[in-house]
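Newbie here. two chains, one complex. Structure please?
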Amino acid sequence: AQSVTQLGSHVSVSEGALVLLRCNYSSSVPPYLFWYVQYPNQGLQLLLKYTTGATLVKGINGFEAEFKKSETSFHLTKPSAHMSDAAEYFCAVMGFSGGYNKLIFGAGTRLAVHP
Amino acid sequence: NAGVTQTPKFRVLKTGQSMTLLCAQDMNHEYMYWYRQDPGMGLRLIHYSVGEGTTAKGEVPDGYNVSRLKKQNFLLGLESAAPSQTSVYFCASSSPGTGEDLGQPQHFGDGTRLSIL
């Protein structure tokens, strides 16, 4: 069975500082991994995904994530935080059961950016 | 380009009332999903559908029913609302993908905020 653990339900950074949101996964098969962002009162938007190939994945808004199989991790980073990055971020792993593409979500990490 | 549209956006119900949440997608996706989002618990799958006329139970299906009579629409019903069903409900859709491109992302609506008193 697949699962996702996001370390830290709340992360606070200063504007311009490095953003690091941690995600560890459990999967018995090569995983497909996703990061989504949720702004207040909105749905989830895809930031980036890893399926196969290059382990460093670049997404929208300057975010990137690195797939590390040996560490079963898929941490999300951004070199310099902007006030507009304040949101909740969800890591997810895709499983395939019952004939459909199942997404298993982590509990989420709320990112606060202060001046 | 609407993507996934959910109606209504907000609703307040009394315990025991019924209601239907509507989800419509214009991306011709085969798969559709209903989730609920509760603080600290991420998103949990209620029901899903892999095609018109087919539905299946997800992780937390009790108290909910669904129907997919048309490919573009996926309805979520609460027959007798309970306070424990107070939540934010999200609909999503995706294509199945093929071959080595199975990792198709899900596209989400903006949610329905439901309060049950």
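Moderator note: The mean pLDDT of chain B is 92. Chain B is about 0% helix and 50% strand. Thread marked as resolved.
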